[in-house]
């Protein structure tokens, strides 16, 4: 994820592409090309895994053309494993992968099958343009670029607050100030080791994922004008 912090304000510069956010695109592709599911998956989404004893009963479901939920009568085909299963970080496409965009992975298959997952992974990037020359940036205006190890445990606003509190305490001419605030963000996301594991503020669980953080100053953009 990337965010810009300008005058303490958060400007999102990316959005996550996950099985949940791309649900309708994935379901539509599976609906149009059902052979991609290998007769083992259903493109429909249910609140939980459908059990055989529920055939003939009514259950909530979502299709590609739905933002909300509706009821349907459960059929035999609904017993197949859902194309998208799980919630949040545990959401997976075909019970295998938790992202929906990327390069490569052409040979990636569902475990112990010949069903390819690549058709559901888009290589089309999201592009957002931020005109550096449109604004006058100060030494505390930065672009934060970080892996999900940071964003899993810290909100955009928490990151912005940490940065805006940290940078003013550094020498504006110190070129290492941005490295120092990046290190501070990593430590905030990892937390401290306690009896019950790694903990961050408010006794929340620290990140168990890899944490990489770039803090890029925007003030150099002023010199281009």
From TrEMBL:
GO terms for cellular component: mitochondrion. Residues 1-218 form the PPM-type phosphatase domain. SUPFAM superfamilies: PP2C-like. PROSITE patterns: PPM_2. GO terms for molecular function: [pyruvate dehydrogenase (acetyl-transferring)]-phosphatase activity. Pfam families: PP2C. It comes from the Eukaryota. This is PPM1H phosphatase. It comes from Pandion haliaetus. The lineage of its organism: Eukaryota, Metazoa, Chordata, Craniata, Vertebrata. The gene is Ppm1h.
């Amino acid at each position: 994820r990337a965010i810009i912090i300008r005058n303490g304000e958060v400007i999102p510069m990316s959005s996550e592409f996950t099985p949940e956010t791309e649900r309708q695109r994935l379901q539509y592709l599976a609906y149009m090309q059902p052979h991609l599911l290998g007769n083992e998956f259903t493109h429909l989404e249910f609140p939980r895994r459908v059990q055989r004893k529920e055939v003939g009963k009514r259950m909530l479901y979502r299709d590609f053309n739905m933002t909300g939920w509706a009821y349907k009568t459960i059929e035999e085909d609904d017993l197949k494993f859902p194309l998208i299963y799980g919630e949040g970080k545990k959401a997976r496409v075909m019970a295998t992968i938790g992202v929906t965009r990327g390069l490569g992975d052409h040979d990636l298959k569902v475990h112990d099958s010949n069903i390819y997952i690549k058709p559901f992974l888009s290589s089309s990037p999201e592009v957002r343009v931020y005109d550096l020359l449109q604004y006058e940036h100060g030494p505390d205006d930065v672009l934060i670029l970080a892996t999900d190890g940071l964003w899993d445990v810290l909100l955009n606003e928490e990151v912005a607050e940490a940065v805006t509190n940290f940078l003013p305490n550094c020498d504006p001419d110190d070129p290492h100030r941005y490295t120092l605030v990046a290190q501070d963000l990593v430590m905030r996301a990892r937390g401290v080791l306690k009896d019950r594991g790694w903990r961050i503020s408010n006794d929340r669980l620290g990140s168990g994922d890899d944490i990489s953080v770039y803090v890029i100053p925007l003030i150099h953009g002023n010199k281009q004008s």
